Amino acid sequence: MDAIARWKDKVRAARAAREAAGEATGAQHWDADRAAWFNRFAGQSDRSHTYRFVAPYVKGRVLEIGPGPGAYTRLLLRDAEHVVAVEPSPFMIQRLRENIGVRDDLTIVESTIEAYLDRLETYDLALAANVLSGIEPIDAVLSAVTAHAEVLAIIMWSNAHTPAWSRDVQVELLGRHAPQPNMPDHEDLLGVLDALGLVYTVHRAEVPIHTFAYPAEVVDWVQGFHSLPAERRADLERVLAPHISEEGGKYGLPSGRDTRVVLVRRAL
Ligand SMILES: C[S@@+](CC[C@H](N)C(=O)[O-])C[C@H]1O[C@@H](n2cnc3c(N)ncnc32)[C@H](O)[C@@H]1O
What's the 24 CA to ligand 1 centre distance in angstroms? Predict the structure, then answer.
């Protein structure tokens, strides 16, 4: 199977597993509760470890795909003349507006990127951070965006392995004994970029895991991630306690994932 077909298969399999577990997928995934959870933990978070690879290319007109509550949007607006942010979730858009405010140099479009391809203009930079792995028509999206942007910066995780705390939560609290199928990761992405004949460089970002002020915040994060009800809180605390570590006065859980920043040059 070629890389593009493999990507699409993975997106479909991951979506089917999440739907079978009763979760909303695609653009519907980011409902009011999930948007509030993401905003709390990621909306204001430090993105310097990944953004440093993107920063040299931020100028002029920038397209941001899936800005969410705007952790990168805020940084892009420092150096870009204008940012067009394409975001399908109205709940994320509400957070983005609250966080960034109304500005002449920011246009927010309520749409998926797939539905926006016909309206693309030209950009000095496009940014797709933590968004591509749920997009099935990846070939159409990457071909169109790289034909319209000098540089496309993609920030993406690997699916290296499931850490022990996550396995424990899945088995003990979610009753999930078989692992859920992985979404496409950066290795899949590089296969797709090769299949499309695109030219790129890959940068490994060292993202710290100890970012929470209290152990209870770590538990809040996992509780929100899995939408666990309040009555499961004590069980969750018990399962996570042996895995939470402290460094420099901050708390965190081991991550099974690495983060990559992939810089793709304009397709000629
Ligand atoms: C995990 S969040 C990442 C937000 C932000 N880029 C960041 O890294 O903080 C993914 C965001 O992409 C948006 N999204 C999901 N599917 C999308 C699509 N097909 N086109 C554009 N954005 C999408 C979601 O609504 C959500 O706001």
Answer: 14
Number of domains in the chain: 1
The pLDDT of residue 220 is 95
- pTM of the full predicted structure? 0.94
Is residue 68 in contact with ligand 1, taking CB distance under 6 Å? Answer: yes
Tokens encoding 143 = 């071909």
Contact criterion met (CB below 8 Å) for 63 and 127: yes
Atom of ligand 1 nearest to the CA of 134: 16
In a domain, 232, yes or no: no
Instruction: Give the residue, by CA position, lying nearest to ligand 1 atom 14.
Output: 66
Q: Return the CATH number at 49.
A: 3.40.50.150
Q: Which domain holds residue 139?
A: 3-162+181-207+256-265
228-232 — which CB contacts under 8 Å span 24+ positions? 228/173, 232/173
Ligand 1 centroid distance, CA of 209 (Å)? 21
Position 181 scores a pLDDT of 84
pLDDT lower than 70: segments of the chain: 1, 160
In a domain, 141, yes or no: yes
